[in-house]
Structure formats: C-alpha cells, structure tokens
Amino acid sequence: MSKPGQHVVPNGNKWRVRKAGSSKASGVFNTQQAAIKEATKIAKNQGTEVYIHGRDGRIRERNSYGSDPHPPKG
What we know:
Blueprint: E1 6-11, E2 14-19, E3 25-29, H1 32-46, E4 49-53, E5 59-64
Parallel strand pairs: 1-4
Antiparallel strand pairs: 1-2, 2-3, 4-5
C-alpha cells in the first residue's frame, strides 16, 4: 500500500500543504510556490507524491518522489 501524498491546495488567499486524507494542514503559505517547495521537501523525505491544485481546486500537476521509474528532474 502506498503512502499518502502531499497536496498543495488553495486556502482563501493563501495556500496550504496537507497530507492526503488529513484535514489538518502541514503548513499555510502566502504563495503557491512556497507551498510547493515545502510539499516537495516532505514528499522527497517520505518517498511520496505532490499533487498541485489550482485555484479551482482541481489537480493541475503531479510529481512523484517515490519508486517512480521516471521521476521528475530537479
């Protein structure tokens, strides 16, 4: 069974990072970029994925840091 990934989601005028299935935020950030940076750090550490949501709440991008045979560069 895979570990839950990190989601970057809109939160009013801010952005929050939360683990899949959790209602509690790991952090709240002023910019989406800052939230993505934190979510990526957590995902790399845990070997999970990052799901980046747009302002409309829909997932617009996904990056895997687990055992993906073609992981993202950087």
